[in-house]
Write a structure and sequence with these properties.
Blueprint (H helix, E strand, L loop, with lengths): L2 H13 L47 E12 L12 E8 L2 E8 L6 E7 L10 E4 L18 E3 L1 H12 L4 E10 L2 E3 L11 E4 L6 E7 L5
Length: 217
């Protein structure tokens, strides 16, 4: 058999139709994000309502991303609606149910905060709870390092969050569910399970990132 025939045979085999994959087709949430030239969508007029103790039941205790609409901000001075003195609680409407998101704003040494415009990691915003995404968010992988964070007191960080969230409508929140009705750990954790708030996820996206003083990365 000539060497020319062997080379031609190998070329034909390489260019043939690939074998069918044994993996399931990716879900819509696994789709790649839109390219840099994709059109931005307006964030819409935010809706604010009285906080509620009647919460939804569609979450679990995995790390994931909650895509919904910010409807209420519960300050550290409030004791209803899951309020406590170390977290600002966000209430997010998802598929006509309200979910609690606990954002830590208090630590004796201060909480590190970074607000930065950047693309939304992962798939485009899609209303719902999207858990179990391996290595879904890791601060260094999106260019965020501990030296860029500003340490803030509870009062300063709470005020800064109020300003950042004032006009927020659509949100994407990376977190770990604490049960069926809410989530927490909206801060640096490592191993692809970091937490963060992304504002205007369908437009000019802005990330709100958090870390504790003993975390370097």
């Amino acid at each position: 058999m000539s060497s020319r025939f062997l080379i031609l045979s190998a070329f034909i085999a390489a260019c043939g139709s690939p074998a069918a994959s044994t993996f399931d087709a990716p879900s819509a949430f696994d789709a790649p994000p839109p390219g840099p030239d994709a059109a931005w969508l307006p964030d819409g007029t935010p809706t604010r309502q009285q906080c509620t103790n009647s919460l939804g039941s569609a979450l679990d205790m995995q790390h994931g991303r909650l895509d919904g609409y910010l409807v209420s901000i519960v300050p550290t001075t409030t004791r209803s609606c899951n309020g406590d003195d170390t977290h600002v609680h966000l209430q997010v409407r998802v598929n006509n149910a309200i979910y609690d998101v606990a954002v830590n704003v208090s630590d004796p040494a201060g909480v590190g905060f970074l607000a930065q415009d950047m693309a939304l990691p992962g798939a485009p915003w899609a209303e719902g709870w999207h858990p179990g995404q391996a290595a879904l968010l890791d601060y260094p992988s999106i260019g965020a390092h501990s030296t860029a964070f500003t340490l803030m007191s509870e009062t300063m960080l709470s005020s800064t969050l109020d300003t950042e969230l004032a006009t927020a409508n659509h949100v994407s929140i990376y977190m770990t569910g604490y049960g069926q009705d809410g989530g927490h750990n909206v801060h640096r954790r490592g191993t692809g399970q970091d937490g963060a708030i992304f504002l205007r996820p369908q437009g000019q996206t802005r990330a709100l990132l958090f870390r504790f003083v003993d975390q370097t990365f």
